[in-house]
Design goal:
The structure holds two protein chains of two kinds.
Chain A (H helix, E strand, L loop, with lengths): L5 E3 H15 L3 E5 L3 H4 L2 H6 L4 E3 L4 H12 L4 E7 H4 L4 H9 L6 E5 L17 H6 L5 E3 L4 H13 L4 E4 L4 E3 L14 E4 L4 E5 L4 H12 L5 E5 L2 E3 L3 H11 L2 E8 L4 H11 L5 E6 L8 H7 L4 H17 L4
Parallel strand pairs in A: 2-3, 2-4, 4-5, 5-7, 6-7, 10-11, 10-13, 13-14
Antiparallel strand pairs in A: 1-8, 6-12, 9-11
Helix pairs in contact in A: 1-8, 4-6, 9-13, 10-11
Chain B lengths: L33 H22 L4 H17 L15 E4 L5 H11 L38 H14 L6 E6 L6 H12 L5 E7 L8 H4 L5 H7 L3 E6 L3 H12 L6 E6 L22 H11 L3 H10 L4 H8 L4
Parallel strand pairs in B: 1-2, 2-3, 3-5, 4-5
Helix pairs in contact in B: 1-2, 1-3, 1-9, 2-3, 2-8, 4-5, 10-11
Classes of the chains: A alpha/beta, B alpha/beta.
């Protein structure tokens, strides 16, 4: 495994928001008493008149954000991923998604890597929830640089966005000069034997798994799919056709997440074997590393899934 | 009582800080007598009932209880321009109880936001007049249909106006049953905390919600005390009295440092005997026969209803069929 520098994506969010606040006076921020944790307080300190802490009252926060949006503002609603999706889901559905409101939702502390706070705080359903809303842009950045760009793109593009970031430090997989493109998959590694498709904190383990596979002569392509909706179905179908097998990797419940959506895209094209690295049940309290290991979200888990795909390819006659 | 014939007294509708004509020259600064407002309300109740009967579904009870609240606003208070619904300085009216959209749609059509003929397309495939009010219809400020969200939305709208130093005021109409929603009280707290004094909430206190009477479903009283305890100025009025409504709106405009809640005591299904106070007509359309009776109770002859239906875009055959049995 290579050692990569790390960045805390929620902190990058806060810094980017602060920078954007200086550039665009129409940005307003609403929060739910977790602004220090999400680093939105950096914006609040600089622009107190455009910053509204509403307490842990997420329904009010989301509908207020919609009101701001339809009055010419670009509101960022920020809180933990669990409280920014499931808790105010109806407000998001009717007031933001159906209305096409220009609201940006930032969900931090996503997945099980939030760690010790336990299952109530671990959002493992949020991607499914937000991708079930037609027209909602859903972005799961892989690292700090991608987070910064995603926040900028969400500000620039009209319409509702959900951006999912993490509590813990995430390895940086992008180099300077990387250009995030909304709705486009990014090829991080070329390969022809199979494709590993990952998002968020699972991108770095996917690259590690590919390197490990390479040492045994298997060349895995690695796609980073940061935009879960709209999904780059073309890139997925092309990868399926060119490499004949897919592994997905995500820090989310197996239903309704990246794996489900990739499998759907593959099935609608030319079906090939698909294996999914994802969560199969609720987790528990523990350190992020302990949880990722116990619940099957490591590079080793990705590599084993890749071997299963290769086995299925071989038994079906391969290509 | 004020008599239009004498014309001795007119509704004073321009608050001191509201110019009579707004910058693009089309403010609703015309003053209407109370009698004219009552006539408007009567015509709007007529068209509400016709459009709901045609849709064969919808919510007449709350549309009739809110009619005078809306007529007072749209004809006597709001600075708005039906030809320019996106005018940035317009006063905002937000219908939080979105099921009562027939009331709003009919007022908007009478005010000229869109053709009255659209009212006969309510709830039909392809119509912009959706079953619950939705962004996209001229004059509709918020997508609704799930209760409890409008007051929060209104805070966002009002605070945006404060940030941009725009002069507009924001009015949000809630149902009394809607006050069962917890989000209403999240918003009530936030509006007072941020001292959103350009925000006025109106509670249509008609005493009936979907299933039953409000106090059978969930005890709301003491409702005024609740709003007061949350930091609001509270005005309790007769929601069918134009003098009382206009006075309350002006008192709200003059209130600084806190938002104002107008608790408007109304009658569900106002004006139609078999709908008044009757939970059955919260969300059920009248039959043609019931429409005929309602039109009579509102004081419309068959010929007057026929003329109204013509304006609402109905074909002759249907007009004849519906209005034939009417007196």
């Amino acid at each position: 495994m290579v050692t990569r520098p790390t960045a805390v994506t929620r902190e990058v969010f806060g810094q980017t928001l602060l920078a954007l606040g200086k550039e665009d006076p129409n940005i307003v921020v609403v929060g739910g008493d977790l602004n220090i944790s999400t680093f939105a307080h950096l914006f609040g300190r600089e622009f107190p008149e455009r910053f509204f802490d509403l307490g842990p009252a997420e329904q009010n926060m989301m509908s207020m954000a919609a009101g701001f949006a339809f009055s010419g503002k670009i509101p960022f609603a920020n809180t933990f991923a669990v409280f920014g999706t499931g808790r105010p889901y109806d407000q998001i559905r009717v007031g933001i998604a159906q209305a096409g409101a220009n609201v940006k939702i930032l969900g931090s502390h996503s997945g099980i890597s939030v760690g010790e706070d336990g299952v109530s705080a671990q959002a493992i359903e949020d991607i499914a929830l937000m991708c079930a809303l037609p027209g909602f842009n859903v972005i799961v950045p892989a690292d700090g640089p991608e987070t910064a760009q995603a926040v900028r793109v969400a500000t620039r593009e009209r319409g509702p966005f959900y951006i999912r970031v993490s509590r813990s430090a995430t390895p940086v997989v992008h180099t300077d000069g990387y250009q995030f493109r909304l709705g486009k998959a990014e090829t991080l590694r070329q390969g022809s034997d199979l494709t590993i498709i990952a998002c968020g904190v699972m991108v770095a383990p996917a690259l590690d798994a590919a390197e490990s596979l390479a040492r045994t002569g298997v060349q895995a392509r690695v796609l980073n799919i940061a935009t879960l909706q709209p999904l780059d179905k073309e890139a997925i179908q092309q990868a399926a056709q060119e490499t004949g097998g897919i592994v997905t990797a995500e820090e989310h419940y197996i239903n309704g997440g990246l794996g489900s959506m990739v499998a759907s895209a593959v099935a609608l094209g030319r079906p090939v074997p698909v294996e999914m690295v994802a969560l199969h049940r609720y987790a528990e309290s523990g350190t992020p590393a302990q949880l990722l290991s116990k619940y099957g979200l490591t590079a080793t888990d990705v590599e084993q899934a890749a071997r299963r795909v290769l086995g299925r390819k071989a038994s079906s006659g391969g290509r | 009582m004020v008599s239009a014939a004498r014309g001795s007294k007119r509704a004073a509708v321009s608050a001191p800080h509201h110019p009579k004509v707004h910058p693009n020259g089309a403010a609703s600064s015309a003053t209407f007598s109370y009698q004219q407002l009552r006539e408007k309300a009567r015509a709007i109740r007529r068209d509400i009932l016709i459009s709901i009967t045609e849709a064969a579904s919808g919510h007449p009870g709350g549309s009739l209880s809110e009619t005078d609240i809306l007529v007072a606003l749209y004809y006597g208070v709001l600075r708005h321009d039906p030809q320019n619904p996106a005018w940035p300085d317009r006063d905002r009216f937000i219908l939080s109880k979105g099921h009562a959209c027939p009331g709003l749609y009919t007022v908007l059509a009478h005010r000229g936001y869109f053709p009255k003929a659209d009212l006969s397309t309510f709830r039909k495939l392809g119509s912009h007049l959706q079953g619950h009010a939705k962004i996209g219809t001229p004059g509709v400020e918020m997508s609704s249909g799930s209760l409890g969200q409008g007051l929060s939305f209104g805070i966002g709208v009002a605070l945006a106006g404060r940030l941009d130093k725009r002069p507009y005021r924001t009015y949000v109409l809630l149902g009394d049953g809607e006050c069962d929603e917890g989000q209403v009280w999240e918003a009530a707290m936030a509006a007072a905390h941020y001292k959103v004094d350009t925000l006025t909430a109106i509670v249509d206190r008609n005493g009936v919600q979907n299933d039953r009477h409000t106090d059978e479903v969930m005890q709301l009283e003491p409702l005024a005390a609740k709003w007061r305890a949350f930091g609001w100025r509270v005005l309790e009025i007769d929601g069918h009295s134009f003098p009382a409504l206009l006075r309350a709106y002006h008192q709200a405009q003059e209130t600084s440092g806190q938002p104002t809640a107008i608790i408007a005591r109304t009658v569900k299904g106002k004006g139609v005997s078999f709908m008044e106070g009757n939970p059955a007509f919260h969300g059920r359309a009248p039959t043609k026969e019931q429409l005929a009776q309602a039109m009579g109770e509102l004081g419309f002859s068959g010929a007057e209803v026929a003329a109204a239906m013509k304006e609402l875009g109905f074909p002759e055959a249907k007009i004849a069929e519906w209005t034939g049995p009417m007196k």
